[in-house]
Prior knowledge:
Elements: E1 25-28, H1 35-45, E2 54-57, H2 68-82, E3 87-89, H3 93-103, H4 105-123, H5 135-149, H6 151-158, E4 163-166, E5 169-172, H7 187-192, E6 207-210, E7 224-226, H8 231-234, E8 238-243, E9 246-251
Parallel strand pairs: 1-2, 2-3, 5-6, 6-7
Antiparallel strand pairs: 1-8, 4-5, 8-9
Amino acid sequence: xxxxxxxxxxxxxxxxxxxxxxxxxxxxxxxxxxxxxxxxxxxxxxxxxxxxxxxxxxxxxxxxxxxxxxxxxxxxxxxxxxxxxxxxxxxxxxxxxxxxxxxxxxxxxxxxxxxxxxxxxxxxxxxxxxxxxxxxxxxxxxxxxxxxxxxxxxxxxxxxxxxxxxxxxxxxxxxxxxxxxxxxxxxxxxxxxxxxxxxxxxxxxxxxxxxxxxxxxxxxxxxxxxxxxxxxxxxxxxxxxxxxxxxxxxxx
Length: 252
């Protein structure tokens, strides 16, 4: 007599790693052209930092809100004043779309406009063009934006890194593929998101702090710490204060 046994699915991995950044950090979520909120949040966290505290921004500085030009200028000047090892600005997918427009305006422009590029142009006192405009008009608009931005801002934007690590904490814009070692992550996944990131816990004991996906309430969850609270729509820009074994949140 044969007995048929159902094969059990392997248990899903449980994330229970301790939270151990090497540095005390303040991580700010997606700013999206909200310079006034950024200034307000920086004021609120000023008394919570020390000279050794690292300030990390997870990207998406442009689009959606009305003050993208001011945000870019503020962050570049902060980094120049305090040092790139003290103020770490990462690249988000909206920052990448702006770069793509500068590289190939006719091909990348319509997509960028759809996701907030028109607001960024307006912050530089520029208007968009029709999606069906000839290539020459797209190029002319790109050149006007490049002139308004100035070369230093463009160079700064292009130089933004995709991630930053401290201890067992990995910070990026959209998350990291849980099936791939951190050193082998694809750029696309770090700035646009990876399949399974929000459903599959990492098995390497690394915490991932990220933006990109709007959350109603920032809180640690199974090795992930989301910090995007939809500032451009909610008026709530959030920072996570990270220290060994502890995460606190401050919002506007």
